[in-house]
Amino acid sequence: MKITIFGSGYVGLVTGACLAEVGNHVLCVDVDAGKVERLQRGEIPIYEPGLDELVKRNAANGTLAFTTDVGAGVAHGLFQFIAVGTPPDEDGSADLQHVRAVARSIGAYMEEFRVIVNKSTVPVGTADVVRETVTAELAAREVDLEFDVVSNPEFLKEGAAVEDFMRPDRIVIGTDNPRTTELLRILYAPFNRSHSRLVEMDVRSAELTKYAANAMLATKISFMNEMANLAERLGADIEKVRIGIGSDPRIGYHFIYPGCGYGGSCFPKDVKALERIARDVDYPAELLQAVEAVNDRQKRVLFARIRDHFRGELAGRVIALWGLAFKPRTDDMREAPSRTLMEALWAAGASVRAFDPEAMHECRRLYGERPDLVLCERPETALDGADALAVVTEWNVFRSPDFDAVKARMRQPVVFDGRNLYDPVQMRKSGFVHYGIGRRA
Ligand code: UGA
Question: Which residues are noted in the entry as NAD(+)-binding (predicted)?
Answer without folding.
Answer: 30, 35, 86, 121, 158, 269, 334
